[in-house]
Structure formats: C-alpha cells, structure tokens
Amino acid sequence: MGPVTNTVYNNYLTTYTPKPLTKYDTHKKSELRKVYNSIVKLNKDEPWYLPTTSKDTQRYAVDLKENARDLRNTIAQLGGLEKDGLFRKKSAYSTDEGVATAAYIGPEDTGTEVPDFQLEVHSLATSQENLGFFLPGNSRAALSPDTYSFDVNINDMNYEFQFSVGENETNQAVQERLVRLINNSDIGLRASLAESEGRTSLRLTSEATGLTGGKDYIFAVSDDHTSKTHGAVEYLGLDYTSREASNASFSVNGEELTSPSNHMTLDQLFDVRLTGISSGAQPARIGLKTDVESLTDNVSHLVGGYNDFIKAASNYLETQSRSRQLIKEMKGIASVYGSSLEIMGLNLEEDGTLAIDQDTLRRTAVHTRDINETFGSLKNFSNMLLRKSDQVSLNPMDYVEKVMVAYKNPGHNYPNPYITSAYTGMMFDGYF
User: Fold this and answer.
1) Is 28 exposed, middle or buried (0-12, 13-18, 19+ CB in 10 A)?
2) Taking the chain, what is the end-to-end CA distance rounded to the nearest angstrom?
3) Are 185 and 178 in contact (CB under 8 A)?
4) How far is the C-alpha of 386 from the C-alpha of 129, rounded, in Å?
5) Can you tell me the distance from the alpha carbon of 432 to that of 424, in angstroms, rounded to the nearest whole number?
6) Which CA distances in Å does 120 have to 8, 86, 247?
C-alpha cells in the first residue's frame, strides 16, 4: 500500500469505524489473487446501477465492510481459519485487570506447564505533551499576514510545517488550521485545542510513550532555522513541554524492569498491557486459564463478534432498507443451528442476536471430551459466518439500495471494474 493510499485508508478508518489492525489483515499473494478473481467474476455478472452519491449511504457501505472484516478477524483469532483449530485457543487471566490485562500468545501445545508471573506496576509509560499559550480565541492573531513555518524533530526525522496567516484571522482560526495540518501529516504526533475561559491553546501529544536511545524527549518544535518566516513557535508557545515522556517501571517475579511502552510480552508467552499502578497489596498474577474457562471464553468471543455485527447493521434499519435483508440472512444462518445452539446455552433472540446462558455453556464445556463432537454445530455455524463475512466484505454494495440501469447481455458480458470502483471511490471521495 503506497503512502497516499495508506494515508487515505487511515483517514477512512478514523472517520468511519476505528478498529485495530491485526495480523489477519495481511495476506499472501495467493489470497489476494483469490480475492481478485472473485472481484472479476462479480463484476462480470453484476447488472449496471446508477452511482451512489448519498453520503449516508456511502458511510453505511464503508461501515458494513469494516464490521464484516471485524467479524472475520474475531473468528480467525479463535483459530477459525485452521482445520480443527476453532475453540482450541488458550486464554490468559490477570487477577487485577486494573493493573494489567493479558492474552496468551505462546504455542497451543507446549509439552510443558506454562508458568505464572507476578507483576507489580510502579509507574506507567507516558507520552510527551507540549502545551502552547492560552490566547484569546476570538481576538485577531498578532502575527503579520505572511507564510510561516516551523520544524518538528521526531523519530530521528525532521518535518517542516508551512502555513499562512491572513489579514484579521483570529488566534483560534490559526490554531485550528495547525491542528488539521499536524493530524493529517501522520508523523506520530496528535494535535488538539485546549480551551479555558474563552482562551484556546494548541496541545501537541506524541503517539509514542517513553524514552529510548538515551534521548530526553520524543519530539522537539523549533523555527530557529526554518525556511519561511519564523516567530509562530514563540507566539503560540509550541516549544513548551508541559509533560515529559517517561518509561514504565514494574517488576516481574521480583525483578525490577523498565519499558518505554505499556505494551510488552512476558517470556514470549503472554501479551501484556499495563493499565494502572499497583495498590501495594498483592501483585497481579498472570497465567493460563483452565481448558474449560478457555473454551467458554472462545465461545463467548465468537458470540460477541456475531452480536456486534448484528447490532452494527441494526443501527441503519431506519435509514437503509437493505440492512434489514442482511440481518434476516444472518438470523437465518443462526436459526439453522438453533436447536443445537440452545443445548449449549446459546439462545437466538428476536433481534437476531444470541444470548448466552453461562451456566449451561459451562456445564457443556465441563463434560466435553471431544470438542469437534460437542461443539460441531457451533463450528459449522462459525464457518457459515466466515463465508458470509467474506461475501459482505467483498461486495458491501449488495446491501445498498440502488437504482438498476440494465442487465448485462447474457453470454456476451465481460469483466469491468464498475462495482468495486463505486465502492473504492468512497475511500477517496472528497479527500483530496
């Protein structure tokens, strides 16, 4: 993905449905070829439609695709892409999630007992924050009309930002322009406005935390040697560090450690995120849940992913008539396995979501000797969801109300990029 496309995609994710990327969002050439061949076949057989211009409809289509991707990734994270891998994923526990959360990332068959870890957190890693002067927001900026610039040094790179100040522009107008300029640059720095009693200040915060390589800062702002007119840094106060970056301080099994990040791994077995400071009582313990607890967790995550997809589609019932068809199809998939799911404690609700009877689910898990036999219908259900999520992700426009122009000539049709171009254009529309 090129730099321009990457920036557009990040903007589109931030605008519509911010979701974290996972390892399942990367693909082999063979997988991309399969997607391409599916697109070619889809475009060859699809009728001609008028282009969709409604912003609400475009938002719905983009949102639909991202929620389908999220459902697929939920199933993938549970081992659903591997033969006999579903529901065999081990789960980690933390006795104090206010201090740290944990996920198991080690091998499924270790051959040895996985150890527990005792964790105490003394301080969290923090980001650097620069806070400018609080200036009267509605007052005219005391910068002469001109083109100004300043430099930001971050991640061993220097970036120059240029902006113009017009006649009679207010302080807030200039600050808001810089907020957009910096946030759109995607250099690891986030800008925002702080307000207090009619005065506004430009706040700069690093996305990274902690200090590495012997440095005492993450970023520095200056216009001492910039190419355009200088003076904006001093006027706005952008070089004042209101909070210095710091490393996390913690101990694992009594050994004192530091880290520039609040996210780390323990012995290549657990993915740990520090969430708070220990209270001074017992240290948090990180370890593996029992097989029964892991199994019920996996089922709960699958149901949660399914319910999230249904709820996301339900948000558009009043504005997008075709969303009702999608919910009906998803509900139909669940109803096929309805009686089998009920035995496990999964009950289909009127709105298409699944409710979990934890006691029944746990009893089923406790008496399970063969996962494939006991949870076979649930695995088949997840496979159907996987295929459905792939279909929706490939062509979310299938669930958009469209005006058809004409069918293609049977037997004489040919591949064209019309359908996928209509969707892809939504990522770029209005961006440049």
Assistant:
1) exposed
2) 18
3) no
4) 43
5) 14
6) 41, 34, 15
Burial of 303 (0-12, 13-18, 19+ CB in 10 A): buried
> 53-91: per-residue pLDDT in tens?
778 888 888 888 889 989 998 888 887 777 666 777 888
Contacts of 305 (CB under 8 A, 6+ apart): 70, 71, 74, 75
pTM of this structure? 0.71
Query: ∠ at Cα 98 (119, 73), nearest 5°?
Result: 95
The full DSSP string for 32-87 is: HHHHHHHHHHHHHHPPEEPPP--HHHHHHHHHHHHHHHHHHHHHHHTTTTSTTTTT
- What is the average pLDDT score of the chain? 85
3-state secondary structure of 244: coil
| Buried-exposed string 165-204: b where 16+ CB fall within 10 A, e elsewhere | beeeebbbebbbebbeebeeeebebbbeeeeeeebbbbbb
Type and span of the H or E element at 389: helix 376-394
In the three-class reduction of DSSP (H, G, I as helix; E, B as strand; rest coil), residue 21 is classed as coil
Could you tell me which residue, 24 or 228, shows the higher pLDDT?
228
Measured CA angle at 210 (ends 203, 11), to 5 deg: 50
Alpha-carbon gap, residue 49 to 38, rounded angstroms: 19
